[in-house]
Amino acid sequence: MPETSAAPRRPFDWFALLAVAVTAAAYVRAIWFTPPEMLQGYAQKILYVHAPSAWVAFLAFGLTALAGAFWLFLRDPRLDRFAESSAEVGVVFTTAVLVSGPLWAKPIWGTWWTWDARLTLTLFLWFVYLGYLVLRGVIPERDARARLSAVLGILGALLVPFIHLSVYLFRTMHPMPVVANPDGFQMPPVMVKTFFFAFFAFTLLYAALVRARYAFATDRDALEATLDATPDGGR
Amino acid sequence: MRAPGLLAASWAIARKDLAIEFRTRSAFLSSVVFSLLAIVIFYFAWDPTAVGPLALAPGVLWVTFTFSGLLAMHRSFGVEAADGAIDALLVAPVARESIFLGKALANVVFVAGVQAVSLPAIAIFYNVPLAGAWLPLLGILLLATVGLVAVGTLFASITANTRMAELLLPVLAIPFFVPVVMPAAQATADVLSGRPIAESFAWLRILLAFDLVFVYACTVAYPFTIED
Amino acid sequence: MTTLVAATGLVRTFGARRAVDDVSLALSAGECLALFGPNGAGKTTVLRILAGLLRPSSGEARIGDVRLPDPAARGRVGLISHRSMLYDALTARENVRFAAALHGVPDAEEATVRALAALRVADRADVAVRSLSRGLQQRVAIARAIVHAPDVLLADEPYTGLDAQGGAALTALLRERRAAGAALVVVTHHLHEGLALASHAAVMRAGRFVRFERAEGLDAGRYATEYQELVA
Q: Do A151 and B225 touch (CB under 8 A)?
């Protein structure tokens, strides 16, 4: 009987569907069932994207660095696949932070970009992890790729407090007028609940995306292994 | 036969790198010329009646140092890769950390040499009075250069393993230079405008902390960047 | 006789490819292994593992009783690679001296002069390596590898680029190292040359030793014929 070369299909990703559904629910709640903020109006609802994305971005990069550190000692390819997946998903969420920040700042602060300490930190983090992905892209050998990107990931995590410190100090040395302080206002409980819901939903979304990206990495590595093992496919 | 210790081996490697540099002088010369060009061109990038040269000088100085430093650090592993000489270093019974420390030391000397030319140049071209400020300036230069070189040398080792190293090195290294260049430029500005150095202590503390953390971290990380 | 080089169950994978697949060998003082095999058979990878440059994926390699890549083990190894491993801006003398310094050779200057003389490049010692011919560079590279009188000499195609005089100097040197009690591994494509030098001969193919025996008394002509069949 001739073998068919069709790839085995993965079972339907129910977890991803759940994550998308919860995220959708969080937005339905944020848009229709949470009252607009008194001073900022509807623009404040952008923060339901902005803040959870920022949380996920930092979570993603923290886990990337951690997975890299463990890889250096355990040399387990699964850790590297996770680091790769988490970094890529992290860049997506960081991009969401960097896009939603200006969208919110324009109506509230009257300008697209402010060198706000946390936004600036996020911007530099975005650069570090774009570099991380570029580095991964130019190293064909799997172990070398894992090893070098692990080093970069760990150093990137060490860098975060230093960028934060210097950007923060820059702000205190050169104070700019503060138009509105998003930390200052007291949120009514209904908003707090929506925020928690959104944080939870985004974390779930992160997990689902990393899971899917990880599955892809597993398939790709398996495919490479088959190609390497065949006499003509190897080097 | 007793293998040299960490410092002796680092010193031997640094001396070897400097000897190569002294012999060819091509990288040093191009770094110096690059710095002078940058200083001159930056002058025409602003309206001198709106922004005074004195206000420009610190920023120009540090951007110049950053990029000329990257030239030095990129070359630093290039000489090892050319004929596989890095393998001879790795077979030798010296701690691998000493390769990093030796290279970093040579790079500090290299960058300091470029600074020794471009600092007087900016003083003349931008009419900056260095007379009263040179001692604190020296301190800032040293603290910042150590941090720049530690990170830059490590990334040069990482990118030396890849194609398009010359492009990748700045992409990876420059975000890491932010907490060095920003404090250094700010402190330089304070010092040049005649304020006492005590006002810059907050900046210097960041530089010092960065040096301590990253010199250590990069030295420990270096052996992981070598093919094994 | 003491075992100088001991490798057990060496495996090295690159991705899914097994470049070295379960290689074991032991060499005592004064023994020389000639390692033959087609391109890509894993000869260079074995050499790099024995030099402590590559970590085996499994198995282990020892120099004396110290496990690689411990510095104490690396220090007893001399490596002649297929690349010169020289700094072309420095002179021959500076290159060899630097290697001597890294190995902690007590009288580095004298050892340098001796090594360059052994390869008959002493008269070109103060010329920058980049202005030497390919063959002379190879001689300097060999001088660099033996300046610390290594107990274990690993040579990857050491005759490449050498003229008759250089080849003779190298052969004399390898014999002298053997007589002095060093263990040698020589990778080469030249069966006759290799067999003339060696106490043992091995053929690698697809990461494995497919033939391994004592070299003394082997008929070179017959070996060559059998080799062609073996690697075809």
A: yes
How far off is chain C from A73, nearest CA to CA, in Å? 14
Cα–Cα distance, A218 to C186 (Å, whole number): 40
Residues C168-217 pLDDT 10s: 999 999 999 999 999 999 998 888 888 888 999 999 998 999 889 888 88
* Residue C16 shares a structural domain with residue C127: no
* Closest CA–CA distance from residue B25 to any residue of chain A (Å): 31
Q: Are C183 and C126 contained in the same domain?
A: no
> CB-based contact (8 Å) between C39 and chain A?
no
Question: In this structure, is residue A191 part of a structural domain?
Answer: no
In one-letter notation, the amino acid at residue B137 is: L
Domains in chain C, number: 2
Judge whether A185 lies within some domain.
no
B20 to chain C, any CB pair closer than 8 A? The answer is yes
Instruction: Say if A148 falls within a structural domain.
Output: yes
Q: How is residue C141 written in tokens? A: 């590279």
What pLDDT, on the 0 to 100 scale, is given for residue A175?
64
Query: In B, residues 75-134, which contact C (CB 8 Å cutoff)?
Result: 79, 82-85, 87-95
| Amino acid present at B84 | G
Residue A138 near residue B158 (C-beta atoms within 8 A): no
pLDDT tens for B16-71 read: 999 999 988 888 898 999 999 999 998 888 887 888 878 888 999 999 999 989 98
How far is residue B110's CA from residue B114's CA, in Å, rounded to a whole number?
Answer: 6
Chain A interface test: which of C11, C12, C13, C17 (most A C-beta within 10 Å) = C17
Contacts of A234 in chain C (CB under 8 A): 17
Contact B83 C83 (CB under 8 A): yes
Domain that holds residue C159: 3-76+150-231
Listed in sequence order, the DSSP H helices in C83-158 are 92-102, 108-118, 134-146
ipTM of the complex: 0.91
Q: How many domains does chain A have?
A: 1
- C18, β-bridge pairs: C13
Q: Are residues C164 and C208 in the same domain?
A: yes
- Could you tell me if residue C145 is inside a domain? no
Q: What is the pLDDT of residue A2?
A: 47
Residue B11, min C-alpha distance to chain C (Å): 10
Query: Taking the CB of residue A31, how many other CB atoms lie within 10 A of it?
Result: 13
Checking if the pLDDT of A179 tops 50, the result is no
The 3-state DSSP class for residue C57 equals: coil
Contact list in A for residue C17 (CB cut-off 8 A) is 228-229, 234-235
Query: Whose CA is closest to C9, among C21, C26, C27, C18?
Result: C21
User: Among candidates A53, A40, A48, A57, which has minimal Cα distance to A106?
Assistant: A40
Nearest CA in chain B to C129: B83
Do residue B176 and residue A128 have CB atoms under 8 angstroms apart?
yes
